[in-house]
């Protein structure tokens, strides 16, 4: 007669992960993909609207590959090459993104690549067909730089948060982040933009470059506030349930995050308490709270956002 044995935590976590992957197919996946594509479209619209309505009329220069596309458009126009009523920036932006997309194929998932192609295509179409006003909306150049930067940054953040990328230097940044480098999309973009605007200083007047630089910094700031996958968080969970094993397995199986377990006692009550420590992204905190409260409604949860994690830490960007 075969002896019964206790199922290990590792085996239970594997079973839970397999069930999660099975549940992720079919209608549930189609619904989530539809929601992501809706946010990608909305983000692309904010990007193109902010750029064409607030930045282009003042001849400010965006950062990243969009700025490069603007510079090429400026150079072509100076030689008499331009299309009537159509701005070439969006089309050139699409062409400039082809090499990074080919590079991303080797490092990123197919679903991410597909979403990114959709995002870049939507941005190109909207940048090409959203009309650039003949006159500026704001007479205040600083106000235009701030509003335009906020809209473009939020739009970029929505695209990144939906498991896609707006292309260009951000796509290169995501590949680097996928290799667990300690930075953020906004930071990498800001460094590239400083170099780009150094080139602009040789071509344009200083005020134009300064306002363009302010715009790019606002974009980076707004992007990092929305793209919370790059913000590290520490969650400390205190639970008094007799057997916390189910909670540990749920966190490891459903979220794919490691758990550090500490056995303690309340200093005042003397009651036994289990302390679970989890490191994750800010984007995952809400899901963790819901999962913990479902198993232990009385659990105490403390979250510290914006922490720097050294060593191996899986950044779930897509």
In words, what does this structure look like?
This protein is an alpha+beta fold and 318 residues long. It has two domains: 27-229, no CATH class; 231-307, Alpha-Beta Plaits (2-Layer Sandwich). Helices cover 58% and strands 10% of the residues. Strands 2-3-1-4 form a four-stranded antiparallel sheet, with helices on one face. A hairpin with a 6-residue loop joins β2 (260-265) and β3 (272-281). α1 (9-23) crosses α11 (245-255), α4 packs antiparallel against α6 (110-129) and α11 (245-255) runs antiparallel to α12. The longest helix has 29 residues, at 27-55. The protein is elongated, with a radius of gyration of 24 Å. The termini are far apart. Mean pLDDT is 80; it is low at 1-5.
Tell me the span between the first and last alpha carbons: 48 Å
Radius of gyration: 24 Å
> How many helices?
12
Order of helices and strands: HHHHHHHHHHEHEEHE
Main sheet strand line-up = 2-3-1-4
The tally of domains stands at: 2
Low-confidence stretches: 1-5
Quick one: biggest sheet? 4 strands, antiparallel
Mean pLDDT: 80
CA-based shape: elongated
* DSSP, total strands: 4
- Which band does the percent of strand residues land in? 5-15%
Secondary structure class reads alpha+beta
Kindly state the percentage of residues in helix: 55-70%
Features:
single chain, 318 residues, alpha+beta, Alpha-Beta Plaits, 2 domains, 12 helices, 4 strands, 10% strand, disordered N terminus
């Amino acid at each position: 007669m075969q002896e019964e044995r206790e199922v290990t935590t590792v085996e239970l976590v594997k079973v839970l992960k397999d069930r999660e992957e099975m549940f992720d197919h079919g209608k549930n996946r189609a619904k989530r993909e539809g929601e992501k594509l809706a946010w990608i479209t909305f983000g692309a619209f904010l990007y193109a609207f902010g750029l064409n309505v607030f930045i282009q009329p003042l001849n400010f220069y965006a950062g990243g590959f969009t700025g490069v596309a603007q510079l090429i458009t400026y150079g072509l126009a100076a030689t008499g090459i331009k299309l009537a009523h159509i701005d070439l920036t969006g089309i050139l932006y699409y062409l400039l993104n082809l090499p990074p997309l080919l590079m991303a194929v080797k490092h990123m998932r197919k679903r991410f690549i597909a979403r990114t192609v959709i995002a870049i295509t939507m941005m190109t179409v909207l940048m090409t067909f959203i009309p650039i006003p003949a006159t500026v909306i704001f007479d205040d150049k600083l106000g235009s730089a701030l509003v335009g930067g906020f809209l473009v940054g939020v739009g970029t953040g929505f695209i990144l948060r939906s498991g896609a990328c707006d292309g260009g230097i951000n796509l290169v940044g995501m590949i680097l982040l996928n290799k667990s480098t300690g930075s953020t999309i906004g930071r990498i973009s800001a460094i590239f933009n400083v170099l780009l605007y150094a080139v602009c200083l040789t071509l344009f007047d200083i005020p134009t470059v300064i306002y363009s630089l302010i715009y790019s910094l606002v974009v980076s700031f707004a992007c990092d506030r929305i793209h919370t996958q790059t913000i590290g968080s520490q969650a400390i969970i205190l639970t008094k349930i007799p057997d916390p094993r189910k909670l540990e397995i749920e966190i490891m199986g459903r979220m794919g995050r490691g758990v550090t377990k500490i056995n303690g006692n309340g200093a005042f009550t003397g009651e036994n308490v289990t302390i679970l420590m989890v490191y994750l992204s800010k984007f995952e905190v809400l899901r963790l709270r819901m999962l913990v409260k479902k198993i232990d409604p009385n659990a105490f949860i403390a979250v510290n956002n914006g922490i720097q994690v050294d060593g191996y830490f899986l950044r779930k960007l897509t």
